[in-house]
Design brief:
Keywords: Isoprene biosynthesis, Magnesium, Metal-binding, Transferase. It comes from Azohydromonas caseinilytica. One of its GO terms (molecular function) is prenyltransferase activity. The chain is an all-alpha fold and 293 residues long. It has a single domain, classed as Farnesyl Diphosphate Synthase, CATH 1.10.600.10. The protein has 15 helices and two strands. The chain has a two-stranded antiparallel sheet with strand order 1-2. A hairpin with a 2-residue loop joins strand 1 and strand 2.
């Protein structure tokens, strides 16, 4: 299957599963706010990485699909909370008003909380379709990527860094946590659905780390080179909020070169894995660096 056809098939499947698993009937309008925050929008890069990594190791597809949906729920909840006035105070996400603008701050907070909980519910099906040891492994990987050592910790550093000058090492550490941890976890969770050799799993983790950082470098570049209608979110907001970025620390051209270097590191890690079916992972690395939104 051609890459674009494969991408569309995964996107369609993930969207269908999300439609079925994110409950419209949650009380007092909560389900509506949850569905608004996660359905019909976004690049779905994290689910694509989960499914591509699972295929690379010939893993269990049912477990991988659940992992893909769970990662997207965690990502969506983080965006809902990040957009709140107490955090980034943004009014546009995925080309539409943010959840708190549409439903109010309290409902947005609850919608994010409920999506986070739902992610782990999805990973632990009662029917026995995913063996308990794998359920526990996937839950652990996702929790560590989303928590204090990963995404939440990175967001804390981000908030504390407003108006501060960070060097490249400190900036890399912040984004390795805030953005990179969940992208890397997406790859490792997909691989965990199979039984790759330890050296192959380590190489896939290195691929995920390089790709995760490349994604953020490109995000910083797009923030100063694209318009809001293209990005689907407020352009230039990092500069306006006086946040350190790869562009402010390295400069625009150096940031572009660094994104290409990270893409090459990701590809080298795939080559080092010794796995035969990594073409889709390699193509996803290209898409991350070549994107315009």
């Amino acid at each position: 299957m051609k890459l674009d056809d494969w991408v569309q098939s995964v996107l369609d499947e993930v969207e269908s599963v999300l439609q079925g698993w994110v409950p419209a009937e949650a009380p007092a309008g909560l389900g509506e706010a949850m569905r608004y925050g996660v359905l019909d929008g976004g690049k779905r890069l994290r689910p694509l990485l989960v499914m591509a990594a699972c295929e690379a190791v010939d893993g269990q597809r049912e477990a991988a699909l659940r992992a893909a949906v769970a990662v997207e729920l965690i990502h969506a909840y983080s965006l809902v909370h990040d957009d709140l006035p107490c955090m980034d105070n943004d009014v546009l996400r995925r080309g539409k008003p943010t959840v708190h603008v549409r439903y109010g701050e309290a409902q947005a907070m609850l919608a994010g909380d409920a999506m986070q909980a739902l992610a782990f519910e999805v990973l632990t099906p009662p029917q026995g379709t995913v063996e308990p040891a794998l359920q526990a492994r996937l839950c652990g990987l996702l929790a560590r990527a989303a928590g204090h050592a990963g995404m939440a910790g990175g967001q804390a550093i981000d908030l504390a860094s407003v108006g501060c000058k960070l060097d490249e090492a400190a900036l890399r550490d912040m984004h390795r946590r805030k953005t990179g941890a969940l992208l890397q976890a997406s790859v490792v969770m997909g691989a965990a659905c199979g039984h790759p050799p330890a050296d192959a799993l380590a190489a896939l983790a290195d691929y995920g780390a390089a790709l995760g950082l490349a994604f953020q470098v490109v995000d910083d570049i797009l923030d100063v080179t694209q318009e809001s209608h293209t990005l689907g979110k407020t352009a230039g907001k990092d500069l306006h909020d006086n946040k350190p970025t790869y562009v402010s620390v390295l400069g625009l051209e150096a940031a572009r070169r660094h994104a290409l270097e990270l893409r090459d590191q990701a590809r080298a890690a795939l080559a080092r894995s010794g796995l035969a079916s990594t073409a889709r992972l390699a193509a996803l690395a290209d898409k991350v660096v070549d994107r315009d939104c």
